[in-house]
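Input record, target 12 of the design panel.
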């Protein structure tokens, strides 16, 4: 069965089925509540099309879709010149059929463990600077025109900032080209989609130390005249932390640089993960057995999550002049990557529960958005 035919079957089932949602939930819509102050989005995989209720949630609440994994370089081009677009085509076709947009995610993932070996080698050893830059350009030339009609934003480069003293992450891209791979990738994306918002995407900009590196990195891109339009702040927060003071500093610096911001991967981890990396990893055996909320969130934790989401969206509303998009990373709790990262446990980080029903967090976000003016 061809991918397009599979999509048509799914779309037909989804459009003919009545989504199993309550009347109260059906009367509320995130995108209606946002009312144009920024785009509201969600990251999905093609598996959502297997469930008519999931499809109904997407249609009602979101404007722009991010392919979670299926448009990443390893998924799209597993061997040089060999492209597999079937899964990303499903999402793009769904967006076209439903008058939605997509975020092209992502064109370059600047990590060695997220880069196939064929990209890093050539006949006589490690890839040369010229060959690597040519391969980046070829990849972008193959991907961007295919989705240009429906992709309004592109995560051009993902996670290139280093974790130590170096500004660039140690990767084949940085070792071989320095900053040149960023210049090449953004220039190629601009050439093939001149009207799209071009995004640099990374994590933990709300943490001291990392914040300063993000600002220095983006400043370097601007000084090099790299055609970057926005910073994609992943926004993988943890319950109990307050990122707003650091985010205000970040947003002020982005204004100074003439950049917009997208909150590209929003969720709030209710089973905090920081201890996984603490003390040289010595807590990991204990944490692998730690699953505090296997059935439901206690009422007090659910209230804390709802309050934290409400504070964040009030803050986003206050900074709407610089925010272009807010995208949740996954549709509902059952789909969240935080059920398995960095260890397997039952997580509840989103606005909809495992059955697709709106949670208290949804109620508070909706209330926040509808009691603040969008004008």
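The sequence produced for target 12 reads:
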């Amino acid at each position: 069965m061809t991918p397009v035919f599979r999509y048509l079957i799914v779309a037909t089932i989804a459009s003919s089925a009545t989504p199993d949602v309550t009347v109260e939930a059906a009367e509320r819509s995130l995108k209606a509540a946002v009312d144009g102050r920024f785009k509201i989005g969600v990251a999905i995989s093609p598996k959502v099309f297997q469930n008519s209720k999931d499809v109904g949630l997407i249609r009602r609440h979101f404007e722009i879709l991010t392919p979670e994994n299926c448009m990443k370089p390893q998924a799209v081009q597993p061997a040089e010149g060999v492209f597999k677009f079937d899964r990303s085509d499903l999402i793009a076709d769904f967006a076209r059929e439903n008058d939605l947009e997509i975020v092209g995610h992502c064109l370059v993932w600047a990590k060695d463990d997220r880069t196939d070996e064929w990209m890093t080698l050539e006949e006589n050893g490690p890839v040369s600077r010229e060959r690597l830059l040519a391969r980046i350009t070829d990849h972008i030339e193959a991907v961007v025109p295919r989705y240009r009609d429906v992709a309004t934003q592109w995560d051009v480069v993902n996670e290139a900032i280093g974790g130590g003293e170096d500004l660039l992450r140690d990767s084949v891209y940085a070792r071989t080209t320095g900053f040149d791979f960023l210049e090449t990738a953004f220039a190629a994306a601009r050439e093939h989609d001149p009207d799209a918002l071009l995004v640099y995407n990374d994590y933990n900009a709300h943490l001291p130390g990392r914040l300063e590196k993000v600002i220095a990195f983006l400043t370097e891109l601007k000084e090099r005249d790299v055609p970057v339009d926005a910073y994609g702040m992943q926004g993988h927060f943890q319950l109990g932390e307050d990122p707003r003071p650091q985010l205000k500093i970040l947003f002020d610096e982005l204004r100074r640089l003439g950049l917009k911001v997208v909150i590209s991967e929003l969720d709030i981890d209710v089973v905090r993960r920081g201890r996984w990396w603490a003390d040289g990893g010595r807590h990991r055996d204990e944490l692998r057995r730690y699953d505090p909320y296997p059935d439901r969130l206690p009422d007090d934790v659910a209230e804390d999550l709802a309050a934290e989401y409400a504070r964040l969206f009030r803050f986003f509303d206050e900074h709407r002049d610089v925010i272009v998009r807010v995208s949740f990373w996954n549709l509902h709790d059952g789909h969240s990557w935080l059920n398995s990262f960095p260890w397997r446990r039952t997580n509840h980080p989103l606005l909809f529960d495992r059955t697709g029903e709106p949670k208290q967090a949804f109620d508070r976000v909706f209330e926040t958005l509808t009691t603040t003016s969008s004008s």
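The radius of gyration is 21 Å.
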